[in-house]
Design brief:
single chain, 242 residues, mainly alpha
Length: 242
């Protein structure tokens, strides 16, 4: 797995973290989600002006949970290894590469849509619709879909997990294997439809390939963001038509 040079020396073994660190990171996910949800629920109860929509509760809770979760990862890398977080996660990239990522996202989205038509993927009642019952909810959901969602998912799957798997199974093994839990994460959203999950797997592999090709998780995140934006815009367009 290509790694940019800098404070993390080329002579150091990369990635320097272990599967034990990965297990700890995974184990911290549920407690962070619980804390995030509890804090927002308390705020919603204590503040009479707090919006009571599902989006107003779920999305800030996820923001907070992700912040706690990656704060733990940041502390782990700094305290245990004394290494810089952003460089370790390959959060680097020139503007030309970022632009390439942004332009590639819609191309992957169109490919996924075409393959989905060929596979005759069933129309599903998306849980996301429950979060789109007001203009404020739509704005919050759209903002999450193209910012925090891709940012955190790419940090976790392509920044932290992929290099570890690539060290063990090779670059392409790491790309494919890191796309599997990414796919399963989206399973409930698509009612575990194998056709939809196959398309998500393809998207995950595409993001992983971008991470490998450019050596930048930031470029993969840009690709993921524009991919989500394409589908979110398409979803809203279809909803307005019916």
């Amino acid at each position: 797995m290509r790694q940019e040079t800098g404070e993390v020396r080329e002579s150091d073994r990369f990635p320097y973290w272990s599967y034990y660190d990965l297990a700890l990171f995974i184990a911290l996910a549920i407690p962070c989600l619980i804390v995030g949800a509890a804090v927002i629920q308390i705020l919603a109860w204590a503040l009479p002006f707090y919006p009571q929509s599902k989006a107003a509760k779920a999305i800030p809770a996820q923001f907070l949970a992700y912040g706690l979760w990656f704060g733990c990862l940041y502390a782990l890398l700094k305290m245990k290894y004394g290494q810089p977080f952003w460089l370790s996660m390959a959060w680097v990239g020139r503007w030309q590469e970022i632009a390439w990522g942004l332009l590639s996202g819609p191309l992957v989205a169109v490919t996924v849509a075409v393959v989905g038509i060929l596979l005759k993927t069933p129309d599903l009642e998306m849980p996301m619709k429950e979060f789109l019952n007001s203009r404020a909810s739509i704005i919050m959901m759209g903002f999450f879909a193209v910012t925090l969602g891709p940012f955190c998912e790419e940090l976790a799957f392509r920044g932290f997990l992929l290099p570890l798997l690539a060290r063990t199974f090779g670059n392409w093994g790491g790309i494919v294997l890191s796309a599997l839990p990414f796919t399963l994460l989206h399973g409930p959203q698509y009612s575990w439809s194998w056709r939809h999950l196959l398309l998500i797997l393809f998207a995950g592999i595409s993001f992983g390939w971008m991470r490998y090709r450019t050596g930048s998780t930031a470029v993969a995140a840009a690709m993921h963001a524009s991919y989500n934006l394409t589908f979110f815009a398409s979803f809203l367009t279809q909803e307005r038509m019916y």
